[in-house]
Amino acid sequence: MASVSITKTPSAVDEKLPPVKLVLAGAQHLLAMYASIAAAPLVLAVALGLPQEQVIYLLAVTALTSGAATILQSVGVWNIGARLPIVQGTTFTAVAPMILIGGQWGLPAIFGSVMAAGLFTFLAARHFSKVLFLFPPVVTGTTITAIGISLVPIAVNWMNGGDQSVTAISVPNLLLSVATLAIILVVSRVFAGFMGRIAVLLGLVLGTLLALPFGMVDFSGVRDASVFELPAPFAFGLPTFHVSAILAMVLVMLITMVETTSDVLAIGDITGEKVDEKRVAATLRADGLSTLVGGIFNSFPFTAYAQNVGLIRLSGVKSRWAIAAAGGLLVLMGLFPKISAVVAAIPMPVLGGAAMVLFGGVAAVGIGILGKADLNNPGNLLIVSVSLGLAMIPVSKPGIFGNFPASLQIVMDNSIVLACLGAIILNLIFNVVGKKGTAAEAPVPERIHSGDPVRS
Question: Binning pLDDT at 50, 70 and 90, where does residue 241 land?
């Protein structure tokens, strides 16, 4: 009797695209995330009055370390890294405490606290993953939806040129944003296959070309940037460690652990991959190790980027190697500042038009996950409605918690944290307390999807 060999079909996560497609898919993720990566060092530099050469250095090293963190997360080493298509970048949650720390003790204290918080995250990853039972679909879906909703104002600000002080949008900025959005929609609708999957990349490139004749693209930074620069550890001096600074940064990392956990569960839903305690712990270890090493090289805390979760859903490209390619391109940007300058020349309205698709896509991922929760249950409906309402407080009224202590503002001013904490607490009240068993005995969701992988 002849033996029958069974060949295991590789998962979409492990798909290895041809080189050209791999680079294009990676470039699309890079362009979708770069503005967010650059935001943290730019805001910090302006707040602390850093000279131009230090700003350029921070931008380059942030790109380099974000790329290395993305490669670590997507490829994985030992029990570190999710081995899923997850993009890592600097978290904006850290900016406010970093400004306070820098103003009091200087840059060495900032990077000392980042290193300590990274080590804490690495060591706490296994313990944090044990509370995965706190993230059933009603909690995860609500949190991811809140992430998408809270990001939309950022997209609107980019459409308006990126200046928060300007309230009325100019006609050129509006037209350029709408044109970019229209290009993405048309390419997605008209083209099948890989062309349709890189619709966001084409929108960003063609939108920038449209802006050229109107003088809305500034390439002066390309001329001024150096060709090659190798970042050095402790470029701003040996780190210093202050208890209050470390505690503030540890709080930031606890917030990012919640965000990253929600994102990796969403990626599991999109790709059909199993996400259990072990994988969550590996994901958080990568966050911690990247943040620790980032502090050594004068970078910032890292987290998973939600806009790239939306891009994976939109494009249908689920390969972790495409994400690793994006990480490789980021490393090149960090080593060759002229490349960074070219990417940085993309007009903000173009980024805003693309971000509308991406950030809305994040909310759509959350809504899809909520579809797996029983919303006919009045308790679940209250969990979603109240938690999303909490998320809208800092979005609709920025600075509303300005009279609170700085340590509380880090939490209260974060829509994602308010939504997640609200959903967790309400889920415990409505679905755990008083039911059979306890929260500790509740089953850990190995997946948050219904069983069928999402089709491209």
Answer: very high
